[in-house]
Amino acid sequence: MGLKILSFKPDLLTIPYVIEDALDSLRRLGHTTRLLDLHRAEKEPRKYAMRLIEELNDFRPDFIFSVDHLGVAPRIFSQLKIPYASWFIDEPKRCLDPLQGLDKEELTQYCLPFVCDRAYIEELKGSGFKEVLYLPLAANSSIFKEMRLSKKDENKYKCNISFAGGSDITHYRRHCLELKEEKIQVLIDEIINCHIQRPEEDITCILEEIQKRFPYTLSFKDDSHKKAVLLGLEFAAMTKFRKE
Fold first, then answer.
1. Residues 37, 51 contacting (CB under 8 angstroms)
2. pLDDT of the chain along its 244 residues, tens only?
3. Are 13 and 68 in contact (CB under 8 A)?
4. Residues 19/8, Cβ–Cβ less than 8 Å
5. Measured CA distances, 178 to 88, 162, 184, 211, 244 (Å)
6. Against a cut of 0.90, is the pTM above it?
């Protein structure tokens, strides 16, 4: 008899396809899956928590599957003793930041993290996760098929290996192309260029370092606004790096 697995449908561009491919594989292995829509979950956390608890009581999953910790509610899962797997296809630290106020045991006790980059394994173990597994991204073989090309077509279409990924152009436009104040633009350009050169460094440290060299600073409404702006700058740096 197969397992019952609950997952989440986020309001994002690419991750829903990753989730659906993973669930498709699980269904082909004989398991039963169900998706909980995350629409407005961040804006209405209490309503989302109630919907999640109702879904857990109705479906009674054997475990929960998430990508990038989306939809995850560690406190609820710990109280109900429900194990969950979270597959990080993005930087884990960024995905876990919203849960910083939780007790370490509560955050890690029932979670088994998977990462698509081995570089994150020690980082997550340092955060308290006892076991972290490596699971790289792959194509869905039921959708993408091997192509048989003639020698003529192979010569016509072959090319060097290229990187395929999102450009995050909206962040680039917002932080690099649409600012009106020239002096702020210079500061932001410096932060972005520095982050491109030192991608492994926390952008908060880069911000503090660079602001010491300028007579003006970036202003934030609160911590939440600061995190949103810095995340946007990280994406803008990624876009500029890929663009160039």
1. no
2. 799 999 999 887 778 899 999 999 999 999 999 999 998 787 888 999 999 999 999 999 999 999 999 999 999 999 999 999 999 998 898 888 778 778 888 889 999 999 999 989 998 999 899 999 999 988 888 888 888 889 999 888 887 766 666 656 665 566 555 555 677 888 888 998 999 998 888 889 999 998 888 887 888 888 777 877 888 888 888 878 877 6
3. no
4. yes
5. 32, 29, 11, 21, 19
6. no
